[in-house]
Each structure stands twice: as C-alpha cells, then as structure tokens.
Amino acid sequence: MATYCTTPVGRLGVAICLDAFQEPVVERLVSAGADILVQPSANPGPWTPEQQLDWRRSAWTAVRRWPQLRWGLNPMMVGELLGLRFEGQSSIVSARRELWRPGGYEALRDEEGGFVAVAPSATQEAVLVATVPLQAPVGVQPSSRR
C-alpha cells in the first residue's frame, strides 16, 4: 500500500514495508509530489548482514535515485508480537553527504554512508531525532502532480 499527504514539513509519501522496495510504488509517490518517503516496517526475522544489505534497496536507495526525496524515514518494529520476533534498525536517510553521520546498520558500519540517524540496536526500541533543513537543496524541485 502506498499513499501520500501534505504536512507543514513537506509532502509525505508512505510506502508500507516492502512496498518501498518496488520502484513503481516509489515512482508514483514521487510523481505525486512526495519529497519525504516514510517506510514503516516490520521484519519478522533476524537482522543479519544479508538482511541489512537487502534493506538498503528501499528508502536508502530511493533518496539517491529520486533527488526530489529529501529524506527517507524507516521506523522499524522491534520485539515480539503473537509469537513472531521482529528485528531491524530504524533510520533516517538522505542523499545529502553534509548531513551524514558516522555509522549505519550494525553489520555495515563502514559502508557507503547515507544515514542521518540510525537506531543503535536491532532488537531494542529507540527514538531517532535529527535536525534537518526544511527546504530542498538548491536546484531540486518536488515533482508536480500528474
């Protein structure tokens, strides 16, 4: 499921979990004018290095592919529900290098960057906070609605 809404900080495009891995879904949100991608997720398995690499195909990749997306927000459910164990690291990502902070997903700390904030653990809840500019970088305009 994918949807969007306008807020005082920007136009949010919401792609639930694996929908953010699908280019046509993200493309539709961007063409509708989304400039912030929100990807609420629940990973029902261990947060392995392979899973972390795969997860970069979602919001992390989207902010690089579509310059209109200023931020990618990926809140991850952690803990247990109905006998299922959920693991993952919530993150705020951006293509703007000047905003990147050291670190990343647990097993990929020395990788390509892109994280403005990332949860310190894949198994414990966390609240992420980041101070970010409200305007898009110079020369990047949100897509107009089709």
Short description:
Keywords: Hydrolase. The chain is about 15% helix and about 25% strand.
Detail the topology: elements first, then pairings.
Elements: E1 2-7, E2 10-15, H1 23-31, E3 36-38, E4 41-42, H2 49-55, H3 59-65, E5 71-74, E6 76-77, E7 79-81, E8 84-86, E9 91-93, E10 115-118
Parallel strand pairs: 2-3, 3-5, 4-6
Antiparallel strand pairs: 1-2, 5-9, 7-8, 9-10
Describe this structure in words.
With 146 residues, the chain is an alpha/beta fold. The protein has a single domain, classed as Carbon-nitrogen hydrolase (Nitrilase/N-carbamoyl-D-aminoacid amidohydrolase), CATH 3.60.110.10. Helix content is 16%, strand content 25%. The chain has three helices and ten strands. The protein has helices at residues 23-31, 49-55, 59-65, and strands spanning 2-7, 10-15, 36-38, 41-42, 71-74, 76-77, 79-81, 84-86, 91-93, 115-118. The strands form three sheets. Strands 1-2-3-5-9-10 form a six-stranded mixed sheet, with helices on one face. A two-stranded parallel ribbon has the order 4-6. The longest helix has 9 residues, at 23-31. The protein is globular, with a radius of gyration of 15 Å.
